[in-house]
Design a protein that fits this description.
The structure holds two protein chains of two kinds. Chain A is built from 13 helices and two strands; from the N terminus they run H-H-H-H-H-H-H-H-H-H-H-H-E-E-H. By secondary structure, chain A is mostly helical. Chain A has a two-stranded antiparallel ribbon. Chain B is of the alpha+beta class. Chain B has two domains: about 1-130 and about 290-355, D-Maltodextrin-Binding Protein, domain 2, CATH 3.40.190.10; about 130-285 and about 360-410, D-Maltodextrin-Binding Protein, domain 2 (3-Layer(aba) Sandwich). In chain B, strands 1, 2, 3, 6, 9, 10 and 11 form a seven-stranded mixed sheet that branches. In chain B, strands 4-5 form a two-stranded antiparallel sheet. The termini of chain B are far apart. The chains are: A mainly alpha, B alpha+beta. The interface between A and B is medium-sized, with 27 and 38 residues.
């Protein structure tokens, strides 16, 4: 397809206009993570500076962020896997049997402010001696992941023609079998979307970990605050930690981006 | 086979049970230089006593959230914790979360610090760190302009005007409403006013309003641009970059503005002085910013008391002060070894503030956060109009009413 030069130029200008404000904070974060405290606070801002690695040393050597990475990953991955196990069949059932009320109920759980769950959870988990355990955090993060899985997948399953599973069932497959062997294999983009989104939401979650985790299960968003002290902020280290935390999320989104868009819009137009 | 498994399980349970019986306490610290100092020293304590100390360090607002959740649900396992007396002390005390510390020797603490540690007749927390309002100034700029350090508010205004230039703001102080409340307090005291008096809000008095107007005028005419959105996080970098000639704020920032790794201004060019005197008085705030307490819900109170005695000991206070942490204990400031190492101006300003200081830098009440927001609006109005606002008195009256309602809600109105 050929487009005229002015149109392409216009598109480019528009692209730059949007990209600069969007990318500038990232640029700022990235450059600050290689600056000394003096360079970070200097005014006017220094665009040319001698980069240092000290902030990353602080993050990974002095503060042992690797441990927090492991914590966040274990909690995020397990919560997402368990949410898929429960959420996929639930979404299928909602899609095929028109259980609208059930799906609204699940959505409400997601829409309720998270803080309202925290007090009861805290009491339950501390009575069960589950404070500072992965179990408590994984369960709490499933509140984030499960509704996303159910909502994305139920509208996705609705776009999968019923005839596909019906023909399988005519050939003698059970519904479960049809779901596993016919429906799931064609739902790749939807599943990838729900995995990506729910993992990122879990990865970024602050509130649940703040109350339910202690030193042993501390997650990344909480650990960033290790660099915020009373009347003192170590900006360089905060920036370096932020870069380190965002990297996996950005990577994940970049790899699966085309599925995410597809998966989210799949259920958008249905006849 | 089954018997064997059973025996192993039983042994495991016994071992775990024995483990649980070992002496162990849980301590929650803030991300604070003193918290770090304690963390480093705790292994020695563990070795000497055989008590295992489980330490957690949290950013201050996270610490408050965590403690509040744990105590409110009555399921806390915390034994000892760091606490901010002015911010949460009253609420924690009223909710019965502090264990009274009757077996602790408080004779080494200044009386003004004990004011916030005691409720009724009993002390409930140990003052750890104090801070007071000071004037930071650039010695080199003062020399160049041929000025001497201001001793009164009139001199402060004159100096701000003289030092103000295109490059450098003559004067800076917090302008962001709620955050500014603590810094405005000393100005109000020096004008002879107060936020609260006998359990009632009184910041609509002529004295208080004059102080707020003066503060607004100074910042509007000689402050950095956009000061109404600035707290210490924004002003300190400006000072460190050499863009501010005078800055009034808490003494806690001294270490960071003379640290060559953080500041572009040479340490020799940074001065620290008493906050200038006002028309009526010279009573800068001198507050306990951090204290330490034993949890009422603690199941190991004897161990907790032993730990808090060690963690707030005179010996550690001395170490803290040498590391530029402004400790509450008198003995630390009197120690000749400390005095030899510490900055003479800092020591002098501490002596002045400890003697003349006001123990509160904010309205001392349970709903302090809400009250700060309300007072902050008055301060911002004053800055926006360079202190000339016609409606300021009216606005202050409205806010006084609102703060009094907050006091009534918690049963603190008229109680003192």
């Amino acid at each position: 397809m050929k487009t005229s030069l002015p149109r392409r130029a216009g598109f480019l200008v528009l692209l730059v206009c949007i990209a600069i404000p969007v990318l500038f904070p990232f640029f700022w974060m990235l450059s600050s993570s290689f600056k000394t405290q003096v360079d970070i606070v200097s005014w006017p801002p220094k665009l040319l500076f001698s980069p240092i690695l000290g902030n990353y040393v602080k993050v990974f050597a002095e503060q042992n962020f690797l441990k927090y990475f492991v914590n966040s990953s274990v909690i995020g991955v397990t919560a997402v896997v368990l949410s898929l196990l429960l959420g996929l069949p639930a979404a299928y059932s909602i899609a095929r049997f028109q259980q609208k009320r059930l799906s609204v109920f699940i959505l409400v759980a997601r829409l309720m402010p998270g803080i309202s769950f925290l007090m009861p959870w805290y009491i339950i988990f501390s009575r069960l001696k589950l404070m500072d355990s992965y179990v408590a955090l994984i369960l709490s993060h499933m509140l984030i992941a499960l509704p996303i899985v159910v909502w994305i997948m139920s509208s996705y399953f609705e776009t999968v023609p019923v005839e596909m599973e019906e023909s399988a069932m005519v050939d003698g497959a059970t519904r479960q079998r049809a779901f596993l062997s016919i429906i799931l294999p064609v739902s790749g983009p939807g599943i990838v979307t729900s995995i990506t989104l729910s993992f990122i939401f879990s990865w970024n979650n602050f509130m649940f970990s703040q109350v339910l985790s202690m030193e042993r299960t501390k997650t990344l968003p909480i650990a960033v605050y290790n660099f915020v002290s009373y009347a003192e902020v170590d900006w360089g280290a905060v920036m370096a930690a932020a870069v380190a935390i965002m990297a996996p999320a950005i990577l994940l989104t970049m790899i699966f981006q085309k599925y995410v868009v597809k998966g989210l819009t799949m259920g958008a137009v249905k006849g | 086979m089954k018997v064997k498994v059973f025996a192993v399980l039983l042994a495991l349970i016994l071992i775990l049970g024995a483990g649980a019986q070992a002496k162990e306490i849980r301590v929650l610290l803030a991300n604070h230089p003193y918290g770090e100092l304690l963390r480093a020293a705790i292994p020695e304590y563990e070795k000497a006593t055989g008590v295992k100390v489980n330490v957690e360090s949290l950013q201050e607002s996270q610490l408050t959230t965590k403690l509040t959740t744990e105590f409110a649900t009555n399921s806390s396992s915390a034994d000892v914790f760091m606490t901010r007396p002015l911010q949460e002390g009253k609420m924690f005390y009223k909710n019965g979360w502090y264990e009274p510390l009757t077996a602790y020797d408080f004779s080494d603490y200044p009386e003004s610090a004990m004011g916030v540690a005691r409720f009724g007749a009993k002390p409930y927390l140990v003052p750890l760190v104090t801070e007071w309002q000071v004037l930071y100034y650039r010695k080199d700029l003062f020399r160049k302009a041929g000025l001497s350090v201001p001793k009164t508010f009139a001199e402060l205004e004159a100096a701000a005007k003289a030092l103000d230039s295109h490059e450098v703001a003559g004067f800076a102080s917090r302008g962001r409403g709620a955050a500014a409340v603590t810094q405005v307090s000393s100005y109000i005291y020096n004008y002879g006013g107060a936020y609260l008096d006998k359990g009632k809000a009184v910041f609509d008095s002529k004295e208080a309003l004059d102080a707020i107007r003066f503060y607004g005028k100074l910042l509007a005419l000689h402050g950095p641009k956009g000061v109404t959105s600035m707290s210490w996080e924004n002003i300190m970098p400006l000072f460190q970059a050499g863009k501010v000639a005078m800055w009034t704020d808490a003494s806690v920032f001294y270490g960071q503005i003379v640290d060559p790794a953080k500041s572009q201004v040479a340490a020799a060019d940074v001065g620290i002085a008493n906050l200038p005197a006002g028309p009526k008085a010279s009573n800068p705030f001198y507050v306990v910013s951090w204290g330490m307490a034993v949890a009422r819900q603690s199941k190991n109170k004897a161990l907790a008391l032993d730990f808090i005695k060690w963690a707030t000991s005179a010996d550690l206070a001395k170490k803290g002060l040498i590391a530029n942490i402004t400790m509450a204990r008198n003995s630390a400031w009197a120690d000749p070894e400390v005095r030899a190492k510490a900055n003479a101006e800092l020591v002098a300003s501490q002596a002045f503030a400890a003697k003349n200081g006001n123990p509160f830098d904010r309205p001392y009440m349970s709903a302090v956060g809400n009250a700060r927001d309300l007072i902050g609006e008055v301060i911002i109005e004053s800055i926006n109009t360079a202190g000339t606002s016609q409606t300021l008195a009216n606005l202050a009256r409205q806010k006084v009413k609102a703060v009094n309602e907050l006091l009534e809600d918690t049963g603190e109105f008229g109680v003192y």
